[in-house]
Design brief:
Length: 144
Amino acid sequence: MSVQNPTSAEQFEEFKALCLKWQDRLGMTEWQLHFTHRDLPGKYAGIEYQIESYLAEITLNTDWDDRPVTTETLESAARHEVAHLVIAELHTLTWRRFVAENQLLAASKYFTSDLIDRGCDWFFKVFNLSEDFRPHAHFSHVVE
């Protein structure tokens, strides 16, 4: 038997703000986010997106069962859902039956060039890793 642990309207507003924070931190600002607060069985939150229009709907479940609803758990859920946008294009293309080579190359370039060329600085800043953990050289990859 599951425990009822509803998420409140105030927690939904906090969740939305945290999603927007992570959208900015992860550099996914080209996406237009919409939010819903509804029943989502078996999940704390979820995301649906359209890569062609850069529209995404992020949903906070109205009942978290036995998981405590705190700022930390809301932030973890928000970060997780927004992180899906980082791989949205590649994920979508890999599930399509017919994909043009230039689509896969463009998605690959995004990961190998755009994300990596933002460099370790971006990655380490987002995940708050120390200077000691950084590699001695930045990654770079030229795609022509």
